[in-house]
């Protein structure tokens, strides 16, 4: 299974939704909390080009935020990306 990386914060409801969706698929995630590790904000910006959380990566592929992840799942592409 490809590695799933999420950049999150403690207070973000979309981060919780993304983690819940991925957990429902049995996915183990690598979470990087940019509130607890402020230096990781720059890493997230460099990788994604975005300032909002969550930012989700499957392997090296940037998925985007929760809405993008949910759309990918609805369209049936999430499980194939995870394989």
UniProtKB/TrEMBL annotation:
Keywords: Cytoplasm, Disulfide bond, Electron transport, Redox-active center, Transport. One of its GO terms (biological process) is cellular response to oxidative stress. The keyword Chaperone does not apply. Gene3D superfamilies: Glutaredoxin. It comes from the Bacteria. GO terms for molecular function: glutathione disulfide oxidoreductase activity. Has a glutathione-disulfide oxidoreductase activity in the presence of NADPH and glutathione reductase. Reduces low molecular weight disulfides and proteins. Pfam families: Glutaredoxin (PF00462). The keyword S-adenosyl-L-methionine does not apply. Belongs to the glutaredoxin family. The lineage of its organism: Bacteria, Pseudomonadati, Pseudomonadota, Gammaproteobacteria, Pseudomonadales. This is Glutaredoxin. Residues 4-63 form the Glutaredoxin domain. PANTHER family: GLUTAREDOXIN 2, GLUTAREDOXIN-1-RELATED. One of its GO terms (cellular component) is cytoplasm.
